Automatic annotation (TrEMBL):
Gene3D superfamilies: 3.40.50.920, 3.40.50.970. One of its GO terms (molecular function) is oxidoreductase activity. Residues 5-180 form the Transketolase-like pyrimidine-binding domain. Its EC number is 1.2.4.-. It holds the Pfam family Transketolase_C. It comes from Streptomyces iakyrus. Keywords: Oxidoreductase, Thiamine pyrophosphate. This is Alpha-ketoacid dehydrogenase subunit beta.
Length: 325
């Protein structure tokens, strides 16, 4: 049976199931224990599983990830939380020079099953360094899997699959969607972790997004339908690897593509999608692949973030420009 729960609660239930199923699963991070995390995603887990399984760490991101690497080398499956997206950079060295490369450096003999949870993105009125979208920085690094759920069901199952993965996974959690509710069936059989999903069928144009922007794209499709336009919405779910086959299949049907993400458009993940789909679908495309995202500027103060983030009008404008070709 399916239960309706918020995305944050779905992650909490997924972590609980992982702790129950495997004594080698550990949770580490700043305030994840007694406080239950600043977003209460780990609420109640330390109380039920103890301080040796759900560990409050010092404020030291590099140390958190470095310790997780050592634990993974000893057979554990650590799930570490970076409290906010902008706090990950002290740990960037550990992630890209150690966590991502150990498997290749050891010629496949060493595996590091570490999940790095990062609440990311804007839309919550936060202060500086609390609303970044750094996924492209990690996607550029070979050896890391990068995923981001957009709904409660995916949050539950993708976390299960990330923890079970023998490769390191950067798990970007869209913080503005933490309180969005959806159906979660804990007995379902999930699809592949890196498989994109069509969440709305359409024929005129494909909107491709992941994480916090999927809901916006669905709202755009609703608005476009009032004008007689039939848009397809594709939830990419995974940034690395990208499911180019599913994107290609959708574009071959609709012949137009708009990619939407919160991160800056300049050198963003949308650029790779646009280039690859142009190569693959050149003779199918009726318009150039367009991108909608953040600006090539530091994330602004909270009172200006609505001007920075993609919104309904900006995405609809891209749709209009694509359909005008």
């Amino acid at each position: 049976m399916a239960d309706k729960m918020a995305l944050a609660k779905a992650i909490n239930e997924s972590l609980r199931r992982a702790l129950e199923s495997d004594p080698k699963v550990l949770i580490m991070g700043e305030d994840v224990g007694k406080l239950g995390g600043v977003f209460r995603v780990t609420d109640g887990l330390q109380k039920d599983f103890g301080e040796s399984r759900v560990i409050d760490t010092p404020l030291a991101e590099s140390g958190i990830v470095g310790t997780a690497i050592g634990l993974a080398l000893r057979g554990y499956r650590p799930v570490v939380e970076i409290q906010f997206d902008g706090f990950v950079f002290p740990a960037y060295d550990q992630i890209v020079t150690q966590l991502a490369k150990m498997h290749a450096r050891s010629l496949g003999k060493v595996k590091l099953p570490v999940v790095v949870r990062i609440p990311y993105g804007g839309g919550i009125g936060a202060v500086e360094h609390h609303s970044e979208s750094p996924e492209a920085l990690f996607a550029h690094v070979a050896g890391l899997k990068i995923v981001s759920p957009s709904n409660a069901s995916d949050a539950y199952w993708m976390m299960q699959q990330a923890i079970q993965s023998d490769d390191p996974v950067i798990f970007f959690e869209p913080k503005r969607r933490y309180w969005d509710k959806g159906e979660v069936n804990a007995e379902a059989i999930p699809g592949p972790l890196h498989k994109a999903q069509v969440v709305r069928e359409g024929t005129d144009l494909t909107l491709a997004a992941y994480g916090p922007m999927v809901k916006l794209c669905q709202e755009v499709a609703d608005a476009a339908a009032e004008e007689g336009r039939n848009l397809e919405v594709l939830d990419l779910r995974s940034v690395s690897p990208l499911d180019f086959d599913s994107i290609q299949a959708s574009v071959e049907k609709t012949r137009r593509l708009v990619v939407v993400h919160e991160a800056p458009v300049f050198f963003g993940s949308g650029a790779e999608i646009a280039a690859r789909i142009t190569e693959r679908c050149f003779y199918h495309l009726e318009a150039p692949v367009l991108r909608v995202g953040g600006y090539h500027a530091p994330y602004p103060p909270a009172r200006l973030e609505e001007e920075y983030l993609p919104n309904l009008d900006r995405v609809l404008d891209a749709v209009d420009r694509s359909l005008a070709y």
